[in-house]
Amino acid sequence: VPSFTKKPPEVPQVNYQYVVNTKCGEVSELDLTGVDINISCPAVSKDSRGVRVSSGPLNPSWSEYVEEGWRRVRGELPTAQEQLEAQQLEIVPVTQLQENEEKWFSIDNEEYEVRHIRVTLMPKSVQVFLPQQPQTYYTLLERALLGCC
């Protein structure tokens, strides 16, 4: 049976058998408080091998808030008071809700009810195939991001 697509090149597998990580499996607890907690992964920050968690100031002044907004408009990285990296993290809210009270997280401009959240980095869990022509790829990606047909 003839094949009309090329087989993707073999990606070399990394052998982790001889890698020693003395901190593997170590559980750390950190209390993060603030109005801005940012979680990013290696697709965004290539120098990281885990989920990067950073938190902004606890109570920013008006001028700090505006300055941070302009920094982000210019495409610069957010200012971080604390940073850590982890393979897995859990967000456990410490707030006690009153009856008929609702609180929300904002994740990528979507609202989620405040509750226990677990984030796990799963590297190489999705394989994506792209068209041969880069221009076609960028057009498809642009349409997907903008929600066009």
UniProtKB/TrEMBL annotation:
InterPro entries: AGK_C. Pfam families: AGK_C. One of its GO terms (biological process) is glycerolipid metabolic process. It comes from Homalodisca liturata. This is Acylglycerol kinase C-terminal domain-containing protein. It comes from the Eukaryota. Residues 51-133 form the Acylglycerol kinase C-terminal domain.
